Amino acid sequence: MKPRNFQIILATTVFAALLWAFVSLGNPYQTILSIPVELSPLPPGLALSTPVPWTVELSVRGEGWILASLLWRREPGYRLDVGSLLVHQRIATIRDVERQLNLPADVEVIDMKPESLHVGLDVAVTKNVTVQFDSPLSFAEGYGLVGPPLVNPETVLVAGAASVLNSIDGWRINDMPFEKLRTRLEKEIRLNDDFRYALTFTPATVRLKLNVEPFAEKLLANIPVDVRSAPPDREVILIPPRIEIVVRGGISQLAALEPGNCKAHVDYAEVESDSVTTLLPVVELPKHLTLISRRPERLEYVIRKRL
Question: Exposed, middle or buried: residue 249 (CB in 10 Å: 0-12, 13-18, 19+)?
């Protein structure tokens, strides 16, 4: 194909596309505008008792050219004026939003979600609440969490409406999922009012620490098994009297673990049951260790009267 013929074909294609777009965008269309909701300063001594959405969605109809320009431009947002309330509640409707946005005359507003904005106010108070870590965790193969997640500080001061804070005993931080962790992690997390009650936090951030280590297993032998709650005139002889266990945990925990840190016992109440012929020893481990196995799994026993 000659270069001149190619240029003619390209120019014809572009012209046809522009002509199609010009004709098509002259037709009526319907689309959705996402409008940010801004809050004016709250009256002194008052706070929001109802949540206010971050955005409202307006369904609008108009010519394609006009709607395209609205979608490309950044909307100024709807400013919800709560500072001039004479009573402690107000409802903003679709017409309130439409008037303030000053949309082109040829654009028709059909619907809004939510249908209205209900604003309630209550006395502003403060409250100390515990910060609770609630994000999902997953670890690389062979790694795990040693100890609980640590949040510093553990409590923060929250300011907001009395009716809202009365129902809050703790504040959950649910950050992004932490996946395939294999090293110790420290991260600063900002406390956010996800439900838009205009709550404020002091301090505004907390520091999260996750102690992640390679996990391993360790064998501990000669763990004595005690008999609990035996009557003074009875003696229970366990066969064997000692067990060995395999535990799983972080390598630093296992390195410091001694047999004396673990305990095992059986309860005499099980011995008195006619249906029991062997006993399952209960193993007590330091925190954050997991029992993998015990050997033997069950113990035989003999009861004799003390002399």
Answer: buried
Residue 7: enclosing H or E segment and its boundaries? helix 3-25
- pLDDT one-digit tens code per residue, 112-128: 888 888 888 889 999 99
Architecture in CATH for domain 28-121: Beta Complex (2.170)
Cis link prior to 286 (omega < 30° from 0)? no
Q: Are 137 and 145 in contact (CB under 8 A)?
A: yes
CA distance 148 to 119: 40
CATH class of 215-305: mainly beta
Please say whether the beta carbons of 61 and 108 come within 8 A: yes
**Chain CA centroid to CA 134, Å:** 5
Tens digit of each residue's pLDDT (9 = 90 or more) over 271-299: 776 567 899 999 999 988 999 999 999 99
User: What's the CATH superfamily of 124-213?
Assistant: YbbR-like domain (2.170.120.40)
Q: Do 106 and 70 meet the contact criterion of CB atoms below 8 Å apart?
A: no
Q: Are strands 242-250 and 212-228 parallel, antiparallel or unpaired?
A: antiparallel
Rounded Cα distance, 254 and 256, in Å:
5
pTM: 0.67
Phi-psi region of 101 (alpha: psi -120 to 50; beta: other; left: phi over 0): alpha
